[in-house]
TrEMBL record:
It comes from the Eukaryota. It comes from Elysia crispata. Pfam families: XRCC1_N (PF01834). GO terms for molecular function: damaged DNA binding. This is DNA-repair protein Xrcc1 N-terminal domain-containing protein. Signal peptide: none annotated. One of its GO terms (biological process) is single strand break repair.
Length: 278
């Protein structure tokens, strides 16, 4: 049809359709869709208009033109002769999955799709397709040969047998401020106090000019940072014959640590699915 061309299947928003020509009396139309890349097909949804039967075939762009397409979905009956005569069920939506595909064909990759529509019972109607939806998937089988990247993702016994204390040291120590950050925070506080003292009546920005209250605030800040450092530093027993045994005794069970750790997090229920815990 001049208005409802085949390009509507790929460029339309789903409201435009592809129909046969009004003067066409062959009762058969077909279209070939070129995919962006070769893939394994998982689902195919097709909306038909006045199609008595439907067939889906697949092929590859690097094939010679004389090579025929392979049948992915055999001929499926959509309308009976009685339905066609009464005009009943002229618009049908069919959803095909791997169960409907030919197993040996579905296991391969394809980048071309051929859709064939037939209507031998009515020559006075325009048959066609309202939409085509495809979804690709990875193959269900695994290749025997593994690449180097796949071998890196395999968990070895050395990775699995890490001590709990090493995991805590690796992950949770990153959350604690380092010495430079603690020093910078103390320096910033001291500079602010000196600026305040410099704006007073004496106009001096030396540490000797700080008031007694400012000195107490600075001293309290230094004591607080030192206390945080002592409390956050994990206790590591002296290395010796029973060092590993003592480390396990002094470490809380992971279940208890999780019970204390998770309630301290401020997490919305909507973000639970996005949470990753190491």
């Amino acid at each position: 049809d001049h208005c409802n061309k085949a390009i509507n299947i790929v460029s339309g928003d789903g409201s435009r359709k592809w129909l046969s020509d009004k003067n066409d009396r062959s009762g058969k139309i077909e279209v070939v869709l070129q995919l962006e890349e070769s893939c394994h097909l998982a689902y195919i949804d097709i909306g038909t208009i006045w199609c008595s039967s439907l067939e889906v075939r697949v092929g590859r762009s690097d094939w010679p033109q004389t090579t025929e397409f392979q049948s992915l979905i055999p001929v499926v009956s959509l309308m009976t002769p009685v339905d066609c005569r009464l005009g009943r069920g002229s618009c049908v939506t069919k959803m095909f999955s791997k169960v409907d595909f030919s197993s040996n064909i579905a296991a391969q990759k394809w980048d071309r799709l051929q859709v064939i529509c037939r209507q031998p019972f009515r020559k006075d109607v325009q048959l066609g397709i309202s939409f085509v939806r495809l979804k690709s998937s990875k193959p269900t089988y695994q290749s025997e040969s593994k690449t180097d990247d796949d071998s890196k993702n395999i968990l070895t016994p050395n990775k699995l047998n890490r001590d709990v204390s090493s995991i805590q040291q690796h992950f949770f120590r990153k959350m604690l401020p380092n010495k430079s950050e603690r020093a910078s925070s103390a320096v910033q506080l001291k500079q602010k106090l000196l600026k305040i003292s410099g704006s007073g009546e004496y106009g001096s920005e030396h540490e000797q000019s700080l008031s007694r209250t400012a000195k107490l605030v600075l001293k309290a800040s230094e004591n607080s940072e030192a206390q945080k450092l002592v409390s956050s530093t994990p206790v590591t027993p002296k290395r010796g014959l029973f060092s590993n045994h003592l480390a396990k005794q002094m470490t809380l069970p992971i279940e208890q640590e999780l019970k204390m750790f998770f309630p301290s997090l401020k997490i919305n229920l909507a973000d639970i699915e996005k949470l990753t815990v190491a």
